[in-house]
């Protein structure tokens, strides 16, 4: 071993811990660098080896556009309707009663019809307690333009009793106040109405379709302004046809749909997949005042018939009637009386009465056309003009007979039904009294139903807003029996008593309230004549 090697080992032994640390540190750094470089290389190789495909957004034309195309086509023809009206508190009657413990009520609260109205139309329109004053009510609805001149179809319940009707078009600024509309005509039987706005340009009119062609399961869209939200479109199917929801309304046969219809949709169109209006959305079946899966639309074929009469010179719908009543046919009735429409009542003095028809007769055909049910009879007779004649075949006691009947105006024939039927607008209207009320005779049939002696009392036909009678709480359909202890049996009696009274005198009406039962009795309505 030479001297240099010996010197190295001497130094190594003296500093062996320092040399060992240096070598270990050098190895550690080298391993770390190699690991990082290796990881980076592998990472790059992993990215290059990925088989993932980047996401892309399809072009709009690749999506289904059937509903959107129909919506774009129809939305310009659908309008928002805003109405304002003054509602008198319906519970406010200033009445004098014999004894609070004997009070039977006035028949206004908790009536079965109100329960029905709440269920199908979302509750009463007014607010406030029994002591509240007048209510300024605002409501929203929808409508559809059917004539470029500005004629719009909507629901009667959207615009009736409105002091002001305003229409907002879809292409206008949302904050725009809209356009004042005038009422052209209304039809109570179908809950349809026609209004008009005057514009300096043609408006986009919707195309009417044939509702008879709709089948259960067909797709439909409902367009309108639910809750005031304009340009709202919902989709569904026709879930039933020919649905009747209102008792004793023979002309309300609806298309049922599960397309969402909510408050504010009333008057808007139900549209088929051809972009045609096949119905006017009218009502919902609900316990919560909101959509519950079932909605109803008046068929377009009915809409067209009503519209064409409302835009006519009389602005009313004239329907034929022969003055009979009947019940739905069932096997037992058919077995006893025969197949057809069996008469359960004949209105005294009506065309049927004059032609000799009687209770128990079964009508089998009209002008040789067999009748399947009562709906066929009503549809045929109602479509005929008052004054025209029709030949009926019927069976009485097993024997076939014929009768020729002259068609009457249904509104005139049933004008005195507690004020529930449409007012006769062609008859000479009675003059409004200083009380602010018009009255009519009570028919024997109505007197019998009310439990009133024949020839006693008059029925209130109309009450003028803000009048003395309205302030007292007198309502349309009430029966006035006496005024200041004097019997009122005819409109002339009412007029004579009224004309004898002067400003400052006390006036007391003895009244049978509308809808009151016989056992409910009568009430006094009293005040001082202004």
Characterise this structure.
With 530 residues, the chain is of the alpha+beta class. The protein has 3 domains: 70-88 and 134-317, Thrombin, subunit H; 320-411, PDZ domain (Pdz3 Domain); 413-528, PDZ domain (Pdz3 Domain, Roll). Helix content is 24%, strand content 29%. The strands form 5 sheets. The chain has a 7-stranded antiparallel sheet with strand order 6-5-1-3-4-8-7. Strands 2, 23, 24, 25, 26, 27 and 28 form a 7-stranded antiparallel sheet that branches. A hairpin with a 2-residue loop joins strand 18 (362-366) and strand 19. The N and C termini lie far apart (146 Å). The model is unreliable at 90-133 and 416-432 (pLDDT under 50).
Quick summary:
The protein is an alpha+beta fold and 530 residues long. Helix content is 24%, strand content 29%. The protein is elongated.
Q: What is the CATH class of the largest domain?
A: Mainly Beta
Largest sheet: 7 strands, antiparallel
Record the strand order, biggest sheet. 6-5-1-3-4-8-7
Whole-number average pLDDT? 78
CATH architect. name of the largest domain:
Beta Barrel
Low-pLDDT segments? 90-133, 416-432
The radius of gyration is: 38 Å
- The dominant shape is elongated
Percent range for helical residues? 10-25%
Given the structure, what is the number of helices? 13
Q: CATH topology of the largest domain, what is it called?
A: Thrombin, subunit H
Q: Structural class from helices and strands?
A: alpha+beta
Number of domains: 3
Question: How far is the first residue's CA from the last residue's CA?
Answer: 146 Å
Strand content: 25-35%
Number of strands: 28
């Amino acid at each position: 071993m030479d001297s240099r090697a010996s010197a190295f080992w001497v130094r190594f032994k003296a500093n062996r811990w320092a040399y060992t640390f240096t070598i270990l540190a050098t190895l550690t750094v080298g391993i770390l660098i190699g690991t990082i470089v290796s990881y980076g290389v592998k990472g790059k190789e992993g990215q290059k080896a990925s088989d993932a495909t980047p996401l892309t957004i399809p072009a709009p034309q690749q999506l289904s556009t059937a509903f959107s195309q129909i919506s774009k086509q129809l939305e310009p023809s659908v309008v928002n309707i805003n109405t304002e009206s003054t509602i008198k508190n319906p519970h406010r009657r200033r009445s004098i009663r014999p004894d609070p413990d004997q009070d039977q009520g006035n028949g206004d609260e908790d009536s079965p019809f109100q329960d029905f109205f709440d269920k199908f139309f979302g509750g009463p329109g007014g607010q406030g307690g029994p002591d509240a004053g007048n209510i300024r009510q605002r409501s929203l609805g929808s409508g559809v333009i059917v004539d470029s001149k500005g004629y719009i179809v909507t629901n009667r319940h959207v615009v009736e009793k409105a002091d002001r009707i305003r229409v907002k078009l879809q292409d206008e600024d949302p904050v725009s106040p809209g356009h004042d509309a005038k009422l052209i005509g209304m039809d109570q039987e179908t809950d349809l109405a026609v209004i008009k706005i005057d514009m300096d340009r043609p408006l986009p009119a919707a195309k009417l379709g044939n509702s008879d062609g709709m089948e259960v399961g067909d797709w439909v869209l409902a367009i309108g302004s639910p809750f005031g939200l304009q340009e709202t479109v919902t989709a569904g199917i026709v879930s039933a046809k020919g649905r009747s929801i209102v008792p004793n309304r023979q002309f309300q046969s609806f298309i049922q749909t599960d397309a969402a219809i909510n408050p504010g949709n009333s008057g808007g169109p139900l549209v088929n997949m051809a972009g045609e209006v096949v119905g006017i959305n009218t009502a919902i079946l609900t316990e919560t005042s909101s959509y519950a899966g079932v909605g109803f639309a008046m068929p377009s074929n009915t809409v067209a018939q009503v519209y064409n009469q409302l835009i006519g010179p009389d602005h009313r719908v004239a329907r034929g009637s022969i003055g009979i009543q009947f019940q739905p046919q069932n096997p037992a009735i058919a077995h006893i009386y025969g197949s057809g429409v069996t008469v359960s009542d004949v209105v005294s003095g009506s065309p049927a009465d004059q032609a000799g028809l009687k209770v128990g007769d079964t009508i089998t055909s009209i002008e040789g056309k067999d009748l399947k049910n009562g709906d066929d009879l009503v549809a045929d007779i109602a479509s005929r003009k008052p004054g025209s004649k029709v030949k009926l075949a019927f069976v009485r006691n097993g024997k076939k007979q014929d009768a020729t009947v002259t068609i009457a105006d249904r509104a005139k024939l049933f004008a005195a039904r507690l004020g529930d039927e449409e007012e006769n607008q062609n008859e000479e209207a009675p003059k409004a009294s200083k009380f602010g009320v018009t009255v009519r005779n009570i028919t024997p049939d109505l007197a019998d139903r009310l439990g009133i002696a024949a020839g006693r009392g008059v029925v209130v036909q109309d009450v003028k807003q803000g009048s003395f009678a309205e302030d007292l709480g007198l309502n349309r359909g009430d029966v006035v029996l006496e005024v200041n202890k004097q019997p009122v049996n005819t409109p002339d009696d009412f007029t004579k008593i009224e004309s004898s009274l002067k400003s400052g005198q006390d006036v007391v009406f003895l009244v049978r309230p509308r809808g009151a039962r016989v056992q409910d009795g009568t009430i006094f309505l009293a005040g001082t004549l202004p």
